[in-house]
Amino acid sequence: MSVSTAELPEEEAPSDAPGLRSGTLGTADIAFFVVSAAAPLTVMAGVAPLALLLGGVGAPVGYLLAGLTLAVFAVGFTTMSRHVTSGGAFYAYITRGLGRPAGIGAALLALVGYNGMEIGVYGLLATTTRDTAHALFGADVPWLPVSLAGLVLIGYGGYRSIDFGAKLLGVLLVAETGILVLLAGGVLVRGGAHGLSLSSLAPAHVFVPGTAAVLAFAFAAFTGFESTVIYRREARDPARTVPRATYAAVGFLGLFYAFTVWIAVQAFGDDRVVQAAGKDPAGLFFTAITTYVGGWAADLMHVFIVTSVIASLLAFHNAINRYALALAEEGVLPRRLGRVHPRHRSPYLAGVAQTATGAVVVLAFRAADADPYQQLLLWVNTPGMIGLLLLQLLAALAVFRYFRRVRHSEGRVRTVLAPALAAVLLATAIVLVVSHIDLFTGAPRAVNVVLVVAAPAVFVLGLPLAWWLRRHRPGVYATFGTEPTEQPFSR
């Protein structure tokens, strides 16, 4: 027999239980979480050289196009945020627009997708730390202790209050973007390799076969930007703060990525940047900053790449904890995970569970003697990335259907045109990513098939779970995706 939250014993759902710290986060704070999750320095130094190698000097435009696509998505997404205020973010939107079975599938996909995006990055933390230690001190650092130390550090950051995390991410984000701004200043002051050029914008350089691959990398570089709505309950004036933070994050990332890749083109010259990227992709940005600023700046870049990865891990960890909190409050996950720390007002038990999950995965890959980058990062991160792109597509469809079903005063551009166009563009993005999956993973075909199928399989598994909840826990099913103060709807 199922029971509602109100029917639970007092020790399971006390009326005076602490909640998340409301009214804490401003626009800049939420934007810090989102931009930090994207890890701009890591994306630029680690991935942009491959985009240049594949797309040539027109690669910067790929990042602009990806940013524009996600800005279109944000129009409908943020409009719906004024109507759906649940902490469940993606799955709450999808439930309202596409029904509870799809919403429950989306909830599973969000939980698995965000965990994949974070846990795999512990492999990246290990490799960047190892590379930094070797570059600065000539030391060889084993990867497992670094990953485990990262798990403890990130777990502590998530345990602390959300404003602590926002302040820490603000400092780390300034550091990682600052080093790229320093590189840009050096290149601009010295006029690049052969004078500054806007040839990256020329159609002849943009409309080339490699642009499709660049777009795949570019969409992946924005992963996690939609997590602004997860912090709604902790935001100051969420009806304004959340949309502003979303647009600020998308706008900043799109322009910053495109500008930084363009700076790399200027640093080596239109005629030599592709050759330089092919010769030493991992060292492209380090060579550039050494040439235009100095070796000391390259040393700083090594350090800030490590802190960039730490910032990304903390941002994803906080997002995962709030998803788990929302699902625990829904009754889908154990209600213990919905407990909030009385002093820090953080979902600390959800954080402990997430850290333990990460430790199990990391230790399993180490026991299998797997490579921390080629396997832990890429094999765990890739399904997470595809899962979040799929969630964005489902959310765009949900926005479109939701506003067809309810009375509202929103304009047709926000409720019809933007979500429909976003759905088409996001479907295209998913096709691009899947068709170039070998560039992301470098894995055999059989492995790539598993990595691609994993995300949709998780979503499909949510459908029998929805059926089970409807039959065995009808109270949980009936209230899934609704606000605490409203009546359940009939889907």
From TrEMBL:
<keyword id="KW-0812">Transmembrane</keyword>
<feature type="transmembrane region" description="Helical">
    <location>
        <begin position="346"/>
        <end position="365"/>
    </location>
</feature>
<feature type="transmembrane region" description="Helical">
    <location>
        <begin position="281"/>
        <end position="298"/>
    </location>
</feature>
<feature type="region of interest" description="Disordered">
    <location>
        <begin position="1"/>
        <end position="21"/>
    </location>
</feature>
<protein>
    <submittedName>
        <fullName>APC family permease</fullName>
    </submittedName>
</protein>
<dbReference type="InterPro" id="IPR050367">
    <property type="entry name" value="APC_superfamily"/>
</dbReference>
<feature type="transmembrane region" description="Helical">
    <location>
        <begin position="385"/>
        <end position="403"/>
    </location>
</feature>
<dbReference type="InterPro" id="IPR004841">
    <property type="entry name" value="AA-permease/SLC12A_dom"/>
</dbReference>
<feature type="transmembrane region" description="Helical">
    <location>
        <begin position="61"/>
        <end position="81"/>
    </location>
</feature>
<dbReference type="Pfam" id="PF00324">
    <property type="entry name" value="AA_permease"/>
</dbReference>
<feature type="transmembrane region" description="Helical">
    <location>
        <begin position="137"/>
        <end position="156"/>
    </location>
</feature>
<feature type="domain" description="Amino acid permease/ SLC12A">
    <location>
        <begin position="36"/>
        <end position="469"/>
    </location>
</feature>
<feature type="transmembrane region" description="Helical">
    <location>
        <begin position="415"/>
        <end position="437"/>
    </location>
</feature>
<feature type="transmembrane region" description="Helical">
    <location>
        <begin position="245"/>
        <end position="269"/>
    </location>
</feature>
<feature type="transmembrane region" description="Helical">
    <location>
        <begin position="449"/>
        <end position="469"/>
    </location>
</feature>
<feature type="transmembrane region" description="Helical">
    <location>
        <begin position="30"/>
        <end position="54"/>
    </location>
</feature>
<feature type="transmembrane region" description="Helical">
    <location>
        <begin position="101"/>
        <end position="125"/>
    </location>
</feature>
<keyword id="KW-1133">Transmembrane helix</keyword>
<feature type="transmembrane region" description="Helical">
    <location>
        <begin position="201"/>
        <end position="225"/>
    </location>
</feature>
<keyword id="KW-0472">Membrane</keyword>
<feature type="transmembrane region" description="Helical">
    <location>
        <begin position="168"/>
        <end position="189"/>
    </location>
</feature>
